[in-house]
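Q: Protein A?
A:
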Amino acid sequence: MWKGNLLSAGSNAKTRKGDGSEYVTAIMYLVPWKSAGINVCPMAEQAGCIEGCLNSAGRGAFSSVQAGRARKTQWFASDRAEFMAQLYKDVQSFVRFCAKLGVQPCIRLNGTSDIRWELIKVSSFANIFAAFPMVQFYDYTKIANRKVTAPNYHLTWSYSGANDTYAKQHAIAKANGLNIAVVWRKVGMIPKEYLGLPVVDGDKDDLRFLDPKGVVVALYAKGKARKDTSGFVIG
């Protein structure tokens, strides 16, 4: 277990599956969409993922956890420079922690948000990825036209069938070299191929940067997502 002011490692059931002798993942959780007065998930309405968001799954069900996430999100909105300065310190601390264990530090900044971190400066660097080239950053995103330029930042686009306009953006994501994550309601419903691409199991671990290129990453619905009827969850 490791905990910073904004990041933490070892408390998420999904990321723990990939933690071990080679990798450890730290993750940051904010409150999604417009929950704290700032929209940190610009495609949430189009994708229909608001009700099925993992924000309330696991420890997110506790009011104290939600309050902490809200404070972080409000801080990000009200004082971006200080927030990024603290994030820089957290990453430094996590890198030192991983060095002692002899493992590769991995970080998901958008645990329950979809912020374009590649556009936000930190210290004298263009973004957090440039500041820490030794860290493997990765995220899921619903912004299909995000183009990854940092060699240590991996993105997986999150599919939704909530409406045809959003669903068709999978072609944009594919053109940008992004794999596509699809959430299914039941394990037995997952096919071997979807959207014209082979399907791989994304619930074995959370290390999306290890997935082969050109695949659909199958995820299973969790928390409120099991009852989602928006089209975000397939089936």
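Q: Protein B?
A:
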Amino acid sequence: MWRGVDTLLARAEIDGIVAHRLGPLAAYRLEQLGEPIPRELQAQRQLAQLATLTAIPLLRRIRDLVEGPLLLAKGAEVASLYPGRARSFGDLDLLAVEGDALHRALKADGFTEVDYPQYDFTDYRHLHPLQTPRVWLHVDVHIRPIVPDGYRPPPLAEVVEASVPSALGVEGISAPNPVHHALMVAAHGWNDHTPFRDLRDIVDVAAVAQQASEREIDQTARRWGIEGIWRTQWRAADALLAGGRPSAAVRVFGRHLADMRERTVFEEHVQRWLSLFWEYPFREALGHVPALLRKELLPDPGESWSDKLRRLGGGIVHPGRPMSSHLESTPREAAKDGRAF
């Protein structure tokens, strides 16, 4: 797998590496080869190292505040699987049986809610993100396993019972076992029904999944009701990183992954329309089309028709424009895109 990642990084331009959030890994690779490291990549490598150094004492502080199981998932835990821990992250994702109590305890200890005006955390996938003064990492408290919006999450007790020690080595902090973790990482990469945002999501899936039995992950994915999501992400990882059979999903709406470039406006719309048919069985996917059509054609809540038409026109006139340029020209869209910041 990592040889496959190296091959993609070796032929990629710096802009593409940054767009796919693999700057720290590219810098580590160049370091191991004894080659010069571009300043931008070196800065990202240092930020990734700082993230891990900051996460450990922060987790110890959090652990001391409450009783009960705490599981570390996603970025900070996945980073330990990267060569040289060369993966950045900006938050700590914690699954807690007493999540509301943990959230209250953190606020009582001086943590404050991060300003995210574009999100309503009333029924979000985690409680309102928190941050403590002078520490840049956010803390996201989850009260249920991570699955995409619209799916019924499995019982948190199932994940807690099967948990394993965290790779960060903080006493009292666990992590989901690799089967559960691989599925949650794959599900997170499908959030908002927008898969294949960048290659790092695919690398994350492969890094966790190779620690577990593929058969067991398949069985659990079916039981959790996310078989289509898992199968699509895993086949993409196999095709892109391990020389496996070509993935139809990558050919249809993931060409930017193999090319290590940004997705274009046209490719973004292709993904929105067609990824449904990889996520759901065919008849069920058809049932989601009317809602998608309304979302595509009608203004967002609080948006005027003139703003909607301006946004729509920009996509029609410049279908080959990279998504970052499109978002810069439509600040409203940038505000809704969690990765635009």
